[in-house]
Amino acid sequence: MDGIGNVIYNLPADHSCELLVFSLLLSLVTLLMFARKINTARARSPPSPTRLPFIGNVHQLTTRPHRGMHSLSQKYGPIMLFHYGHKPVYVVSSAAIAHEITRTHDASFASRPTTKVFHMLFYGAADLLFSPYGDYWRQMRKLCVNELLSSKMVQSYQYIREERVSELVTSIHSHCLNHKSAAVNLSQLLLRLSNDVLAGAVLGLSEGANEKMRESFLRAVELMGEFSFTEHIPVLGWMDHLTGFTKKLRKTAEELNTFLDQIIDSHEMMKPKLHGQGGDRSDKKDFVDIILELRKADMVGQILTKENMKAILLDMFLAGTDTSATAMEWMMAELAKNPDIMTKAQNEVRAVVGAKSKIEEADISRMEYLKCVIKETLRLHSLWLLTRQSPSTNVIVAGFEIQPNTSVLINLWAIHRDPMAWERPMEFVPERFLNTCWSDNKAGYFPFGMGRRMCPGNQFSAAQIEYAMANLLFWFDWKLPGGMDPEDLDMRDTATIVARKESPLLLVPVPHAYMLK
Asked: What average pLDDT does this structure show over 385-410?
């Protein structure tokens, strides 16, 4: 302003009119620049619901946060600023914005914020799901993708899928013989199936030998979805002790740690037997066997301490059991609600298998419509409801500024129902996926998460879901109990880290003619 002051000071006295005009123009320019600065600042912060002291916007959520946030986004827009207690959280509900994040800012969004629960369960976030993006994370992901969950390894676990699914089919058939026209609890059966497949592949456990372990793992999944006062409203952190949350978390972490110690120790004792002469499991290695071999060969450096091993094993189990079981449960529920689609899927499966007495995994590649049904199930019932990212740098998304190390929630439930990305988004229409392949990741479709943090176990999960569903549709016809009308089937969900069906899925199995021969 010194230069401008000199200009004004040196104007002749008889130029008072010019001085007045100059002053007015200067004031107008200053005012416009100030107004623009205010508008720019406002534009860089997304719309936000009015918040309350201490709790922020938590009171505006329902018991189903994915639905509550979707409802708020209808008013405040596809990206909004939400206050979860004292923490600011950016919520994305648009397929276009999610696509922008994965295509433009994937590296920046490669980290995830961690919590008290994750730190306690996963040995200080030493796992793959919640460890910070960096060298350690890259090495762990490389281990999982190349050694544990590669196409070759997924194929090697075929025998486990076949054994467990065969046991499930036999169990349901036995039920039909002893309890004609009685429904089975498919929710319970599919959860047990998923648990047993993972117990065999990850830990080397036989079917039915892990009841206590199953309870601990399921409790851990529930705790991961529970509200923590310490995390979100620190001033009320003492409430976690009062509600028993901290006690349950500590007890569950201790149980899982003891159990995993026993598993690793028993594998180390059995190791000489597995690969010695006459060993009958040399071609049936589980995840623990593989990791121990890599450690012995010094192929993983210093990253795999025993604690790190346990964190990775927990990842594999917790990320796989509930998600795969829930996906299969919802698929059978959608088919029961849409009997014409079920008939079409069954006709395809039975045409492919023909008169054979067993479904081969090679048959699955010819079941195009079945895969479309699975894809559509994963669209309406995502394996992950809300994926949480945390940018490492200052980024601009959809014109809004997002500060580093803040939480960004990607509402996959809302994105998979975005009318700008999907025709008839609320309807179950498997045909929308015809002539596409499983790995397609079109804008707006993220069945296994997003970007670099996408679930590395997608092939493992897909193989399990495809084989189990093909068998259930081949060997049985399925009816709703008590002559229930399909429109009356309860399709309400309840949320932990996945959207389980609120009420158990009860269906009546009717053995198909192939089984009666």
From this structure: 87
User: Which two structure tokens, joined as six digits, stand for 481?
Assistant: 């109990």
Return d(Cα 133, Cα 33) in angstroms, integer. Answer: 40
**231 & 278 share domain:** yes
CATH number of the structural domain spanning residue 133 = 1.10.630.10
**At residue 34, what are phi and psi to the nearest 5 degrees?**
-65, -45
What secondary structure letter does DSSP report for 200? I
Quote the tokens at residue 58. Answer: 């938590």
**Mean pLDDT estimate for the chain:** 84
Q: Note the pLDDT of residue 438.
A: 44
| Structural domains counted in the chain | 2
**Tens-digit pLDDT profile for residues 147-180:** 888 999 999 999 999 999 999 999 999 999 988 8
User: What percent of the chain has pLDDT above 70?
Assistant: 85
Whether 338 maps to a domain, the answer reads: yes
One domain for residues 24 and 88: no
pLDDT in tens, 267-326: 988 765 554 444 444 467 899 999 888 888 776 666 678 898 999 998 888 777 788 999
Tell whether 22 and 150 lie within a shared domain: no
Same domain, 22 and 139: no
pTM across the whole model: 0.86
- 455 is known to lie in a ligand binding site: yes
The reply to whether 30 falls in a domain is yes
Considering the domain architecture, whether residues 336 and 411 belong to the same structural domain is answered as yes
- The least confident of 40-44, 76-80, 308-312 is 40-44
Domain that holds residue 12: 2-43
Q: Does the pLDDT at position 122 exceed 60?
A: yes
Kindly list the distances between the CA atom of residue 377 and the CA atoms of 328, 373, 416, 430, 447, in Å, as whole numbers in the listed order. Answer: 9, 6, 11, 8, 9
In a domain, 49, yes or no: no
Statement to judge: residues 267 and 404 lie in one domain: yes
The structure tokens listed for 482 are 């008590």
Termini Cα distance of the chain = 97
Q: Write the CB contacts of 43 (distance below 8 Å, at least 6 apart in sequence).
A: 399, 400
Residues 39 and 63 in one domain: no
Whether 70 and 215 map to the same domain: the answer is: yes
pLDDT score recorded for residue 13? 46
- Output the CA–CA distances (angstroms, integers) from residue 289 to 104, 229, 252, 253, 260, in the order listed: 39, 39, 25, 23, 13
- 260-281 burial, b at 16+ Cβ within 10 Å, e below that, comes to beebbeebeeeeeebeeeeeee
Q: Is the Cβ–Cβ distance between 454 and 104 less than 8 Å?
A: no
